[in-house]
Write a structure and sequence with these properties.
Helix content: 40-55%
Radius of gyration: 23 Å
Strand order of the largest sheet: 4-5-6-7-8-9
Number of strands: 9
Structural class: alpha/beta
Largest sheet: 6 strands, parallel
Oligomer: single chain
Order of helices and strands: HHHHHHEEEHHHEHHHEHEEHEHHEH
Distance between the termini: 42 Å
Length: 445
Amino acid sequence: MEKQWSELTREEKRQERLKDYLAPPDIKFRDAKAEKLYKERADRMLKVRMCQEPDRVPVSLPTGNYPAYYAGLNLKKVMYDYKALRESWAKFMYDFSEYMDSFMGPGFVWSGKMLETIRYKPYKWPGYGLGDDVSTYQFVEEAYMRADEYDALMKDPSDFSFRTLVPRTVLAAEELKNFPSLNSMMGMTMIMVYPFSRPEMRAAFQALIDAGEEMERWQKEIMLFNMEMMAAGFPAGRGGLEVAPFDVIGDFLRGTSGAAVDMFRQPEKLLECIDMITEQIIENQISRVNASGGFTVGFPLHKGDDTFMSRKQFEKFYWPSLKKVMDALIDEGIMVSLFAEGAYNQRLEYIGDFPKGWVTWMFDKTDMARAKKMIGDTCAISGNVPASLMVTGTPKEVKEYCRRLIEACAPGGGYTLSGGCPATETKNPDNFRVYMEAAVEYGTY
């Protein structure tokens, strides 16, 4: 008799989730060599995630938006020309495929037309608030939620998001602030029709429909790229992307300064909101991973580094909620990857308290040898080749830095050679080539 899902151990749940990753049922490999490479790469990456020793150190290139420039284009071009987006990323993958183990596809190069259509206030991008030659986005941080609105958010998060936050950030949908409260429709569902008698409301929803149609066109090209790369033998990460509970507030609601002030002026209200967001993240992410057939969730961490908050503040406001989310995901057989932006040297004593082989930390400016010593027995680690070195250094300097990293972090397994952050502005493609060569030359077990 088969066990019910709730009866499985976390290891058994993980094994079920990994089946499609290890042997994707919907992929027809290009040839026998591609299938062999896929299995080798997937096995290598999985062993490292589980803190085991693979055949060699895996490679994850810090490419960022570099593939567009390698193809002679720029970010503005590929944000609006989705076929060019797909083809430029594919060109880079094929040209640098010899020792690459995973790929960062163009899924974070958003559709410029879609963003324009919704008039998305938190972003500026090339040709829309930034110069045509700028190679990345700019996040426009504001306190989109006022200091006195915590109670309104916690009373009805869905309604607050729909009628307050969306109108403040998606300017094409500003009219939603005049939409009736969603909970007012209980027993009177027909009331939802009334707002659409106003042309302003119809225009707001039409803008969202238009943006959705543009997003569909963009998604088709992204999917074509992903399928092509998997057929060529490159495993794709299967899972979701999430934000730490504190970062939801510090990034998207109150902004950095607002969150910092709230830690002093209304700490209990802030903690209450963090607790609510934590429970929502757990429920939503498990549902999303289940629906997508994934096995991992990634977290870019923005406000938890050594320079933003003190140790006591980290212990109180940041780490407990994030760890609760991570523990809940692990219990469901979901592996967790975190990008510790900034420096986490003062956090290492906290962040290794997990069962072995479930958590991967990618570090930006953290001391890698110390990280290996303090958390390497339970957590996989990756990082931290500096973007500045990739952009301005010589191939010899890049290779030497990679050698030192590998010698410090690779013994016993559990290490992936990766960047501290994306190196889009790299001028010499040989820096990426010697980066990969270093993993083979110095990282073979």
